[in-house]
Amino acid sequence: MQFQGGSGAVRIPVRLTAQDPITQAGLAGQLRTRHELRLLAEGESEEGLDGVVAVFAADRVAEGELQVLRRLQRGGEGRTVLVATELDDSGLVAAVECGVVGVVRRADASAQRLADTITAVARGEGSVPADLLGRLLDQVGRLQRQVLDPRGLAFTGLSPREIDVLRLVADGKDTAEIARTLAFSERTVKNILHDVTTRLQLRNRSHAVAYAMRMGFI
Questions:
Q1: Which of the chain's ends, N or C, has fewer CB atoms near its CB within 10 Å?
Q2: Which among 107, 91, 105, 99 has a CA at the least distance from the CA of 75?
Q3: Rounded CA gap, 166 and 187, in Å?
Q4: Mean pLDDT by groups of 10 residues along the chain of 218 residues
Q5: What does pTM read for this prediction?
Q6: Environment class of residue 40 by beta-carbon count within 10 Å: exposed (0-12), middle (13-18) or buried (19+)?
Q7: Which helix (H) or strand (E) holds 58?
């Protein structure tokens, strides 16, 4: 069950956890201003709710914070957003391993940025700042080469539909042909390519294809 706002739009249930009461209150105030979100009260049951997004705010990611993230994952929170003040490479990778699929820097945690990230995560999409994603992919690339490749395993940093679009671009298809093949609108194809190139800080379609091939995503 999901909630309906006054306009009839579906509202995303959000469970907020923070390390201190000041951060908790500040983020709660931000989230309550967004009509598309429904902030669950402390102790409120999630029974009967689908698509709950967990938001966890911390200064940094160390063992204590990872324990909280693991608890959220074990508790069925399949969609977790991390709001962090500091995030080094090891903490970023560890957070992703604990189920984090959205990341927001605390300095950037405006109501709009939080809502955009939560909405993306609720749709099953990852949302990570471009520079952090680049660092994560570098770590993943090393993991792929050193650990997964010898075992015949794979790890991709792109969504399935992004990979499908890039494969067709690599085959020389134009936007209209890709749209017909995947039953997308041309606008959707353009948005997917724009999102990939912006997120990965790539220059154009060819650069995106070359990057994906180099990293072993396609």
A1: N
A2: 99
A3: 15
A4: 50 91 94 93 76 91 90 74 89 82 90 92 81 71 58 56 86 91 94 82 76 67
A5: 0.61
A6: middle
A7: strand 53-58
